[in-house]
Task: structure prediction
Amino acid sequence: MAYAASQDPVTGLPRFAAQEDYLREAMTEALGRGSRVALFYLDIDRFHSVNETMGHSVGDQALRLIAERLRSQVAGFGRLSRLAGDEFIVVVAYRPGEFNPLAFAEQLRRRMEAPLAVLPYSLYFTCTIGIAEFPDNATTPTDLLNCAEIAMARAKRRGRNTVEVFNNEHAAELRDRMALGGRLRDAIIGNELVLYFQPQVNAQNGRIVGLEALVRWQTPDLGLLPPSRFIRVAEELGLVVQLGRWVLDAACRQLRAWLDAGHDDVLVSVNISMQQMLRPTFIEEVREALRASGVPARMLEIELTENAIGESETRLLETVTELKALGVQLALDDFGVGYSSLSHLKQFPIDKLKIDRSFIVDVSTESDGAALARAVIALGHQLGMAVVAQGVETEAQLGFLRRNHCDLFQGFLFGAPVDARDAGRLLRHRYLLPGAFASTRPDRTLLLVDDEENVLRALLRLFRRDGYRVLTASSVDEAYDLLARNHVQVILSDQRMPQVSGTEFLGRVKELYPDTVRLVLSGYTDLATVTDAINRGAIYRFLTKPWNDDELREHIREAFRTHAAAHRPET
Ligand code: C2E
Ligand code: MG
Result:
């Protein structure tokens, strides 16, 4: 029994609990000699997916091999033990200058990437390591372990397969954990939590379509705390489940109140942490919150974070599918900064992608940022999802995102999160920033190119009636200039012009502005150039002069529809 208590039967390693005395002695000794002790907290990334998909016996074998590999690396430097599950601890006592903890951790990390032969499989693992040091970071074994764990958890959030050294930021987190952790449980029961709501608006006209519920903690002594101060603490203390339940209930109660005030077409989204989502009772909690409030499921949206996908896939997919069956909407939060694999993402019945704020910050100033944002929007649409831009702060960003067919916006430009009363007031007005939407409206712009002024005038009259913004160019050079300075969707060009033919001109435009829909309006037809232009995809329609007004208008309408269909998600 003594052996079983101190040795781990799966890996044959000592358990960390049995190593604490050793660690304490090492610390005392180090203090006497002016030397140091480094503690490495090593966690295998996504290990549970092995247990889930291949079974526990494969999982155990993998752990055994991982332990063997670590043992050979640690031998001669320090002590290795197993903390729990897929977590290992390495303790190294050293004299300053004789050992480099960061370099050592990097070696462990890199070695972990080599494949493991668990026959008949070849398994690939990575690991995340947090480092804490005595005497810099902590003075007791438990604190040292906590520090290393916090560094490890932070590294995980930043994307796994990395090493992180405990630093000042972590120290602040640790202080919060100690100062706030003990009070959080009472705060949840004692109703110190409040929900704030941030509007989400339609990209067409600024109409509020939904509100994201964001929790705050109203403390008697420290003021209103943002979630960044206590969500992690709650997660670490296992309180996030209780907290999440409170949020879910409170959001549904608020929805009920808005429903009673006549708002039956508003969505409230709730952030759910993975710990809560993966609990077997989660679906029941959602069902119960909806039942108790009598709110239709379609008015509730659940946000999961991108990093969640890929963690416990099978389980999560089940949960998400059940939520979908309930009629709840699903959004993927902070998209773009996580590491979800696109092929997995496709399996999830998600309605919305919320692009992370970091992609939005520089869209209007830096071309790389713009390209990335555009790619993410296209990706979301390709997967059949609506795309939400988070953290929209300026009209320039708004203009860019609207031109690039983003569907919904959220951000300080429309409003910071506000309490329920103010949110209710916003809902009554319903439209935010109408001015900005009018000035950045993605006009339907038609460019007419013809060297005959009277033709241009006639066409201009015709198309203005249909509400397009019409630009005219009497030469190809003028047309290029207008294209560079305006967002043009449809071009109607004469065929016979002094410098080049219409088909040649449009062939070049196709290269420069592939998104445009291009038509030729010609008084003469040379079959060879027409067929050639059509076959190269340079032109969409070849129309002849004299024209029939109604038919021509219909062709142009059709051209705008074609353009829109190519740039909007299917709904
Ligand atoms: P999130 O889900 O990404 O929420 C958006 C955060 O961005 C909010 O911060 C919001 O105030 C902030 N934000 C919105 N627009 C702008 C903008 O234009 N510029 C800038 N700089 N920031 C903007 P908040 O309320 O502090 O929430 C932070 C995070 O805490 C949330 O990120 C969410 O992940 C988490 N959280 C909030 N409420 C809950 C909750 O009830 N449960 C759980 N599990 N997590 C929550
Ligand atoms: Mg969110």
About this structure: The CA atoms of residues 56 and 274 lie 22 Å apart. The longest strand covers residues 208-219. The chain has three domains: 2-166, 196-213+241-434, 445-566.
